[in-house]
């Protein structure tokens, strides 16, 4: 036999036998495993589910199966006639091949004196076991109904329907894409050159792309509240430093707000500029200008390629830090207390100028007022002694930290070393022995101005004095450094006790099958296109695909919007920030003239109500030629 697959057969067998002396009828209704007269050979078997189905072959190749009903039927009555009785029979069966085009399927109906038939034979004949089979007359049988061929070709109506649905789907997707693109273009806003230097809110996905997904390889610094990543903005190609504050840190949230409130509005050549910020759920991000040379701490104690800052560069850095502190303490609209002045928070730009940054611990108060801070924060070695007693930071506590930083630059030593070494005590002792120049950084090889070195060391000692009243103000510090005033010598240094200083703060996946072969093919062959199950199924499938496609697009857009959504904090409402054009358009009803409250030569002022919080606003619209 050729390749054989599963062969399911269901019989409703009516076998009337007409004998001259009697009329005998034989009825066979289905296959039952318990029937003792039913003999199965080779690959034949009875299926239990569905019941009464005969499987003649299994799924193997080159096999056949036999099923015999072995109860003898009296075909010749020698007493009445030596000739065989004539009979007529009819049966219903269906052969279901596993796939179209497969061969080897057939059915042979025979009468035989024995059930001993051969097994798998390569051919077939009507002579079995030496007995010639009687011819079977099938000329009077009705023709079976013509079964519709399963073909990939379709009639004209079906083709037209499919084409129409495809066109509709394409048009729908095209309209959706055009709508989204047009809406995006309509709502897009141009970023002006002057805005680049002003702090504004960044989109999270832009910062994610800029830092390569916040990869560890992009980390350029790590602090108590999070890490700093180097990035390149895709909008203008500028390099930035992105500070990602630890999401589970409550203090980190306070730091985030403090940096925007303070550094966001500060502009000075010796301060690190805050370009903008971003908040996505619990991700707090601050975007700074990128400073290529890193921190002063790295240049002093971990120099690359043997690079050593010379004295001229160091003295210029000292004056730059002092100038930045003067701006914070006296020249800005409020007093800004940095509270964490140290070498790792001073960045060095390409021209080796100092840029004071990291305002996470900064506090603001009005000129003439007092700081209301009660917590001791800072870094060991830079914390002023009075903070451990009162917890109140002041400009003088920043001056103390500046004095320690000044001694670091002059001596090349850290504030606290091994074996209880304190930098300020060591320099003070040498000063009292008139050996203060012995504390100068040996890596300078005595290549420095003696006057400037003595000034830096002495000023560092005075700024880091235990008593507040001895320390100079930042303006006095600048006058000393510029040579406008002469620094007086201090005899009474007092006994500074740094043993009680606080610790460093923050060091945070349906298949339907017809296995039985019980399909009813006696239905009409001709169908209208509208009632054709295949057409209906096709239409349904295309409709389902269209709906699913729209749902997927909608879910994607919704997910993308939620993913990139950013929360507006309470403290942002009172700060000037960029409003979306569509919000302003809705607020003043499309810039109607009825909403205008004032008109000038090149501008008009409109009254509006913000849709998000109901606040009344005045919007000035300028005409740019």
Automatic annotation (TrEMBL):
Xref: CDD domains:
STKc_IRAK
One Gene Ontology cellular component term attached to this UniProt record is: membrane
Localization (cell): Membrane
As given in the record, the signal peptide range reads 1-21
Q: What Enzyme Commission number(s) appear in the record?
A: 2.7.11.1
Its membrane topology is listed as: Single-pass type I membrane protein
Q: Which SMART domains does the entry link to? A: S_TKc
Q: Please give the InterPro entries that the UniProt record associates with this protein.
A: ConA-like_dom_sf (IPR013320), Kinase-like_dom_sf (IPR011009), L-type_Lectin-RKs (IPR050528), Legume_lectin_dom (IPR001220), Prot_kinase_dom (IPR000719), Protein_kinase_ATP_BS (IPR017441), Ser/Thr_kinase_AS (IPR008271)
Ranges for domain Protein kinase come to: 214-487
The UniProt transmembrane annotation reads 159-181, 536-559
Gene3D superfamilies in the cross-refs = 2.60.120.200, Phosphorylase Kinase, domain 1, Transferase(Phosphotransferase) domain 1
Q: Which family does it belong to?
A: In the N-terminal section; belongs to the leguminous lectin family.
What is this protein identified as? non-specific serine/threonine protein kinase
**Organism listed in the record:** Acer saccharum (Sugar maple)
């Amino acid at each position: 036999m050729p390749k054989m697959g599963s062969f399911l057969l269901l019989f409703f067998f009516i076998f009337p036998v007409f004998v001259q002396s009697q009329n005998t009828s034989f009825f066979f209704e289905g296959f039952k495993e318990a029937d003792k007269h039913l003999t199965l050979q080779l690959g034949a078997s009875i299926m239990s589910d569905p019941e009464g189905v005969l499987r003649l072959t299994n799924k193997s190749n080159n096999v056949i199966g036999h099923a015999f009903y072995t109860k003898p039927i009296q075909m010749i009555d020698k007493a009445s006639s030596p000739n065989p009785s004539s009979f007529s029979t009819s049966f219903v069966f269906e052969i279901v091949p596993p796939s179209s085009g497969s061969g080897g399927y057939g059915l042979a109906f025979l009468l035989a004196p024995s059930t001993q038939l051969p097994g798998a034979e390569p051919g077939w004949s009507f002579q079995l076991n030496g007995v010639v089979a009687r011819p079977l007359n099938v000329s009077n049988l009705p023709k079976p109904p013509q079964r519709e061929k399963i073909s990939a070709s379709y009639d004209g109506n079906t083709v037209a329907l499919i084409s129409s649905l495809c066109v509709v789907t394409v048009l729908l997707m095209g309209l959706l894409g055009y709508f989204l693109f047009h809406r995006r273009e309509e709502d897009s806003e141009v970023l002006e050159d002057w805005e680049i230097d002003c702090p504004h809110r960044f989109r999270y996905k832009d910062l994610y792309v800029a830092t390569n997904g916040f990869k560890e390889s992009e980390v350029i610094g790590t602090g108590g509240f999070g890490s700093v990543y180097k990035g390149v903005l895709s909008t203008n190609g500028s390099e930035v430093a992105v500070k990602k504050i630890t999401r589970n840190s409550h203090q980190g949230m306070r730091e985030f707000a403090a940096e925007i409130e303070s550094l966001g509005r500060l502009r000075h050549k010796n301060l690190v500029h805050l370009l903008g910020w971003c908040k996505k759920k619990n991700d707090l991000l601050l975007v700074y200008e990128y400073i290529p040379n890193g921190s002063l701490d790295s240049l002093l104690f971990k120099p690359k390629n043997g690079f050593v800052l010379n004295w001229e560069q160091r003295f210029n850095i000292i004056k730059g830090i002092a100038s930045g502190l003067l701006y914070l303490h006296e020249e800005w609209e409020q007093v800004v207390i940095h509270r964490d002045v140290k070498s790792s928070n001073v960045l060095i730009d390409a021209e080796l100028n100092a840029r004071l940054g990291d305002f996470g611990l900064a506090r603001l108060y009005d000129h003439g007022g007092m700081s209301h801070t009660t917590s001791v924060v800072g870094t060991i070695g830079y914390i002023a002694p009075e903070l451990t007693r009162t917890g109140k930071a002041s400009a003088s506590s920043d001056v103390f930290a500046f004095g320690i930083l000044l001694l670091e630059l002059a001596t090349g030593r850290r504030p606290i070393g091994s074996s209880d070494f304190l930098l300020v005590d060591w320099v003070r002792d040498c000063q009292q022995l008139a050996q203060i120049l012995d504390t100068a950084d040996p890596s300078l090889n005595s290549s420095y101005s003696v006057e400037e070195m003595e000034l830096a060391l002495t000023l560092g000692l005075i700024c880091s004095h235990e008593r507040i009243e001895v320390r100079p103000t930042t303006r006095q510090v600048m006058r000393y450094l510029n040579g406008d005033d002469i620094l007086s010598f201090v005899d009474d240094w007092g006994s500074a006790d740094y043993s009680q200083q606080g610790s460093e703060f923050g060091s945070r996946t349906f298949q339907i099958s017809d296995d039985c072969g019980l399909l009813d093919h006696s239905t009409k062959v001709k169908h209208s296109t509208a009632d054709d199950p295949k057409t209906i199924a096709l239409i349904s499938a295309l409709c389902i695909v269209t709906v699913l496609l729209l749902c997927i697009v909608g879910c994607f857009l919704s997910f993308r919007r939620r993913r990139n959504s950013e929360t507006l904090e309470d403290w942002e409402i009172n700060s000037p920030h960029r409003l979306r054009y569509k919000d302003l358009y809705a607020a003043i009803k499309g810039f109607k003239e009825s909403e205008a409250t004032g008109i000038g030569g090149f501008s008009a002022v409109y009254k509006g109500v913000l849709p998000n919080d109901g606040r009344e606003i005045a919007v000035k619209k300028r005409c740019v030629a």
